[in-house]
Each structure stands twice: as structure tokens, then as C-alpha cells.
Amino acid sequence: MIYTDGACSGNPGPGGWAAILKHPSSGKTTRLSGGHPSTTNNQMELTAPIEALKALKDTKRWRVHIVSDSEYLVRGMTEWMAGWIANNWRRGKKPSSPPVKNVELWKELQELCSLHDVTFEHVRGHAGHPENEECDRMAVAAIEGMRSQA
Q1: Class level of CATH domain 2-74+115-149
Q2: Any catalytic annotation for residue 5?
Q3: 104 is an active site residue
Q4: Domain spans of the chain?
Q5: Fewer CB within a 10 Å sphere, N or C end of the chain?
Q6: What is the 3-state secondary structure (H, E, C) of the chain?
């Protein structure tokens, strides 16, 4: 299980991301977070699962369920990705269609997901989901940590 969230103070502005990795049978939990001084909320929402999947360092193919409050992330991976790839990373079939925003992050996430059996679930943000709330606090703390170092 991977729970993720991204946050941004201003959009664009300083941003933070967070992920909680929980292994259901062992109970082991790993918390990750970080940030960027100038980014967007959507970029942070994509960065969180990227960094979480990178943390699965061994060569084993894992069954991974990613839970996020980002419709952008979940719909991108479950509804839009196949069309983007078919359209050469464009948001329509025509060559003049606009390119997919954040394409490098989407490509990296798609590549990491191909290494595992990944499913996605959307949860409502700020609705009391314990891990989602914790990820939100961690992402905001990452922003504050960058501000205090500036």
C-alpha cells in the first residue's frame, strides 16, 4: 500500500510531496517526503508516487496499490495514459494537439509502474482518511522546511 499527497503554497510556488509505504503482512511502514522551491501542485502529486515507487529498490515485482486524493494522478494513470501514449504524448489525436502537461513526470511514473502490478484508488482529500491526512501534513511540513532553510 502506498499513500501519497502533494501540496503547493501558491501554484506555482514552493511545493512538497509525501508518501507512506505500508507492507500489509509485515506491518513495516516507511515515510518519505521532500519538496521543490518552485513547482506546481500537480507536479508534486506526481512526484510523490514516483519517489515511493523508486523506494522499492529490490528487483521483485510488487503488487502495489496507490491511494491518492489527486484525481489528476488517478485519472491520468487509469483513464488518460493509454490515449496519451497512442497520441504520442499529446492531448488529442491531431499533431497540432497540445502536448501533455508534465510529460516527463508522467513518463517516469509510467515506466516505474511497468515494473510492478500497480492499481490506483482515489480518496476524497481532507475527509478524515488517516494516511491521506498524514501525507498532507508531511507535504506541508516539507514546504515549511524549505522555507526555514531559505
Answers
A1: alpha beta
A2: yes
A3: no
A4: 2-74+115-149
A5: C
A6: CEEEEEEECCCCEEEEEEEEEECCCCCCEEEEEEEEEEECHHHHHHHHHHHHHHCCCCCCCCEEEEEECCHHHHHHHHHHHHHHHHCCCECCCCCCCCECCCHHHHHHHHHHHHCCEEEEEECCCCCCCHHHHHHHHHHHHHHHHHHHHC
pTM over 0.85: yes
Is 58 one of the annotated active-site residues of the chain?
A: no
Q: Which of 15, 34, 51, 69 is catalytic?
A: 69
Specify whether 122 is catalytic.
no
Tell me whether residue 133 is one of the annotated catalytic residues.
no
pLDDT of residue 107: 98
pLDDT given at position 57: 80
Q: What is each CA distance from 35 to 17, 26, 40, 47, 88, in whole angstroms?
A: 6, 29, 11, 9, 29
Q: Of the candidates 18, 17, 15, which has an alpha carbon nearest to the alpha carbon of residue 38? A: 15
Could you say which of 27, 58, 126, 128 is catalytic? 126
pLDDT along the chain (150 residues), means of 10: 96 96 93 96 98 90 96 98 96 95 98 97 92 97 85
